């Protein structure tokens, strides 16, 4: 899908404030409401906009410990990876699962838990029990320095 400046502006604004009403969005980008709404719908239908979400404060929910977990697998087979990915996808503590290269691990997980006891239970009762997991290395986040959910629209359009 070819994006013009209006589409780029719509995407930037919606990433910052998905609750903006169509009239305000149209005013901000310099279009009338009808064509603005058509553009938003087209971006949704194309699959470029995949959804709208509320961002929550983990600490206010009692989830005060974040960890980056590197997972090593015993075999690099599609079946082994599919089983691992399906299993971790069901764990509510797992915010992100990345298949990686360049490390002594196959996956990196970003997990959030209440405390160290919760992390220990996750590690010992769930992660290490997944078939094929041979190694786990954990790093605990001291402070989130940069947290973004917005993609750089103008860089991707080039």
UniProtKB/TrEMBL annotation:
Residues spanning the membrane: none
Gene3D superfamilies: 3.30.70.920, Winged helix-like DNA-binding domain superfamily/Winged helix DNA-binding domain
Record's keyword terms, sorted: DNA-binding, Transcription, Transcription regulation
Matching InterPro entries: ArsR-like_HTH (IPR011991), AsnC-type_HTH_dom (IPR000485), Dimeric_a/b-barrel (IPR011008), Tscrpt_reg_AsnC-like (IPR019888), Tscrpt_reg_AsnC/Lrp_C (IPR019887), WH-like_DNA-bd_sf (IPR036388), WH_DNA-bd_sf (IPR036390)
Ranges of residues in domain HTH asnC-type: 3-64
UniProt protein name: Leucine-responsive regulatory protein
Organism, as annotated: Rhodoferax lithotrophicus
Taxonomic lineage of the native organism: Bacteria, Pseudomonadati, Pseudomonadota, Betaproteobacteria, Burkholderiales
